[in-house]
Write a sequence for this structure.
């Protein structure tokens, strides 16, 4: 089984409640580390404007680049649910190694401001799953733009779109995400972009 995310780009208003809830729940201190980030895209000129937001957690890829790149096997993919986790005790730290950050095209590996900070990242709120609760970002979202669950169930419920404004899908990594994309104000579908291993490193 693979657990993943659903993100409805048409609902998100960039209120940042998901980010605040995530930092609070996981006791992530103020600073550069944020397990969930929000990207806002703007284009056009008044009055023909287009704005879209993109939630960027860890997408718990089917073939995560960070796992194979870690020189000390500090990152692993759980066989029972596909969640990518990090063992901070094994991590060499950002001053000695930040290979995971270099290979992840989505910026999921995060490091705090402290000296030789260890990698940290979204773990899909495994502590909450054990209590049959969904990740805190999902419960916190006032617009109900987020969901999580077995990826097959998400695809059955929401469709199988990999397209969203600001997102580049990697056919090699296969991020575990399903979107409801926001279309431009002309009603045109988004152009599909495929990320290749070469472009992922750029």
């Amino acid at each position: 089984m693979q657990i993943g995310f659903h993100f409805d780009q048409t609902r998100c208003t960039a209120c940042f409640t998901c980010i605040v809830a995530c930092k609070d729940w996981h006791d992530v201190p103020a600073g550069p580390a944020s397990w969930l980030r929000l990207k806002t895209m703007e284009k056009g000129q008044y009055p023909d404007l287009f704005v879209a937001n993109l939630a960027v957690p860890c997408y718990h890829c089917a073939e995560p680049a960070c796992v194979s790149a870690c020189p000390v096997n500090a990152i692993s993919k759980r066989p029972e649910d596909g969640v990518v986790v990090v063992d901070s005790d094994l991590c060499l730290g950002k001053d000695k190694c930040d290979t995971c950050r270099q290979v992840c095209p989505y910026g999921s590996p995060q490091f705090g401001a402290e000296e030789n900070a260890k990698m940290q990242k979204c773990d899909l709120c495994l502590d909450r799953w054990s209590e049959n609760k969904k990740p805190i970002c999902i419960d916190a979202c006032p617009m109900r733009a987020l969901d999580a669950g077995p990826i097959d169930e998400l695809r059955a419920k929401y469709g199988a779109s990999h397209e969203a404004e600001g997102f580049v899908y990697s056919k090699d990594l296969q991020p575990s995400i399903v979107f409801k994309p926001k279309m431009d104000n002309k009603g045109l579908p988004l152009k599909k972009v495929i990320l290749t291993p070469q472009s992922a490193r750029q």
Observations:
- DSSP finds seven helices and nine strands in the chain.
- The chain has one domain: 3-200.
- The two ends are 31 Å apart (CA to CA).
- The first strand starts at residue 3 and ends at 8.
